[in-house]
Design a protein that fits this description.
Length: about 375
Amino acid sequence: MARSTSCSRWVPLFLLFIARLVFAAVEDGPLVNGDFEKVPSNGFSGVGDGPVSIPDWNTNGTVELVESGEKQGGMILIVPQGVHAVRLGNDAEISQDIKLEKGSIYSVTFSAARTCAQLESLNVSVPPASQTIDLQTLYSVQGWDSYAWAFQADSEDGHLVFRNPGMEDDPTCGPIIDDIAIKKIFTPDKPKDNVVINGDFEEGPWMFKNGSLGVLLPTNLDEETSSLPGWIVESNRAVRYIDVNHFSVPQGKRAIELLSGKEGIISQMVETTPKKEYSLSFSLGHAGDSCQLPLAVMAFAGDQAQNIHYLPMANETFATTNLTFTAKAERTRVAFYSVYYNTRTDDHSSLCGPVVDDIRVWALSGAKRNSSGVLTLVLVLLVLALL
Ligand SMILES: [Ca+2]
C-alpha cells in the first residue's frame, strides 16, 4: 500500500519530466538549417532552376535556394554566409515551427541582402507579433547586413515566418536571407549605484562568431520587447550592436556603434527623484573600423544636451565622459545620437560612427546626504552610549 502511494507520487513528477522533454523550448543559437546548407532531398543540383524543397522549412510561393557566385542579369548574387541562402519572390515566405516559453522575450538574428535596386523590405513575424524591416538602406559595402528583431512569445508553439511583402515587376527581385538564429532575452537587474538597465550593453541579440559586420538593431519603440533590454531605438534608422571579436569595445564584450547622425538614436527612461542632482557617465570611442573622424555624440539627460567629441589618443580606443544634471521628473530620458554622418575611410559607403558603452547614472546629492545622515546617526548613538 505504502509502495503504491509513493509510486503514485512519482508518476506526476515523471510525466512532468517527460512533458518538459517533449516541450523543450528552442535553445539559443542557429535554427535547424538556419544557414540553408543542409542538402535538399533532390540535392543542390536543382539550385538556380526554380523552387526546391528546403529541409526543415515550410515554403509558400516562389522560394529559391541560391548559390554563391550564381549570376542574375550580370549581377553576382550575394550569399551572406557559407555557400547557400534563400531568395523570397513576390509575396513568398519561409517558416519554421519553434517551441517557446510563453511570456518570454526572444530575439531573432538573421542576415539579409537585396538583389535589385528597387525598394525591398522583409516581414519577420511570430504571429501575432510582426515587423517589416526596411532593407532599402545599405549599411555596409558587402551588400548584406545582419538584423535583430524581438518579440514576446504568445504561446509555447511559435511559428517563425519570413515573408517578402514586395510586388515587384521582376519576380526574381526579392531579398536573400541567411544565417537565422534565436536567443531568449533576459533583462539584467538594475545594478547598485546606477539606475541604467543594461548600460554596459552586455545583454543583447545572438551574434555569430564569424559575424564581422555586427548586428543592426532597427527601430523599436517598445522597451518591453527589445533585442537590447532596457533600451529603445527611437529613430527611423538602425544602430549597430558590435562585439569585441571584430570591433574595439570600451568595456566587456559588447557595445553600440551609432550610425546615420541623428537618424540613429538609442534611449532609456531611467528612474530619478525630482530636483536631485545626478551624474551621467559613459565611454565614448571608435570601433576600430577605419571610421572617418571626427566622431562625436549628442548626449541627453532630461532637458540637458551636450555635444561631446571623441579625441583620439595613443593606445586608447575610448575616453570616459562625465556630466551632471538635475532631474525634473520621476523618469528621465537618457539618449545618444551621433553628431556626424560618418563613413569608413576605405570605402566611403559603409556607415560607421562613435561607440558608446558603460552608461551610468547615479544620484550625487542623495549619496552625499545619505552618508552624512549615517555619520550623524553613528555620532548620536556614540553620545547616547557614553551618557
Ligand atoms: Ca560593454
